[in-house]
Amino acid sequence: MNQKGLFSNTIFLAIVACLLWSSAFVGVKIGLKYHTPFQFAGVRFILSGIMLMVYFNNRKNYWVEVRKEWRFIGLIAGLQTVLQYMLFYSGINLLPAAISAMIIGSSPLFISTVSHFSSHNDKMDRMKMGSLLLGVAGVAIISFGKSSLPDAVKISLIGVGLLLANNLVSGFSNVIVSKGANRVSPVVLSSSSLFFGGIALLFISIPIEGYGLKAVAPEYFVALGWLSFLSAAAFAIWFTLLNRPGVKVSELNTWKFLIPVTGAILSWLIMPDEKPELLSISGMVVIAASLLIMNYSNRKASRYRAVS
Description:
Layout: H1 3-6, H2 10-22, H3 24-31, H4 37-55, H5 59-68, H6 70-92, H7 97-105, H8 107-118, H9 126-145, H10 149-152, H11 157-179, H12 186-209, H13 218-242, H14 249-253, H15 258-270, H16 278-307
Helix pairs in contact: 2-13, 2-15, 3-13, 4-6, 4-12, 4-13, 6-11, 6-12, 7-9, 7-11, 8-11, 9-16, 12-13
């Protein structure tokens, strides 16, 4: 595959987006040492939106699209930037890291379920369901392998409920973006929803958290800059893929099973106190099998449609 073909390939771009998202955990951990959760997320997404606005070279057309589709943009900003990340940060603060990782890592299963009931051309079959359940099992193995059992069983039902709600909101927002294909440019949609959603998060955070920025060190600005860039790039790629003809929401989101895998690998490479464990490696093998099954199912379905 030539370079041009590689950078237009859906699977390659999905992997790139997931690699970017998987690198966020270290940056968030650093940033939260200096800033409150909602406020830090708000600043991050405002900067992400500005980065994409600068990248979009036709300023006049940009604001024409925003004014024309402001309701759709507002819906995505409210769901995917404000509500989803408020649920995410609130839930993660009430749970052990392993439980949080497992629930968030199971999001492809929730997204596929939402898509099954809301999209006529994205139904689950036995092989797809088996692949998704295998992926969730792999995430669970990695998650529990990274923590002791006593911590893992201390579960807050409110925290679990918040993260499950986060997964459902993610499913609905992905389906809505996919159904809204061609209404607005993916870059305009991702940048404006991040920017306005970030502003909303910032205003919401003030009465809840107060002014949450403490004395900062250079690592804070490095983390904020990287997180802002990866959000801009990953959401722009993801919204572009969701708008592509023939791309199914459930199949695309299966690649998010890579996030806990690459997140664990990055933590082993970057964090001096983290090392590979047998359970984590076993979980990665299970997730790899899940992705292979899903790709086999997709290729089989493509051949069947071609023959038909």
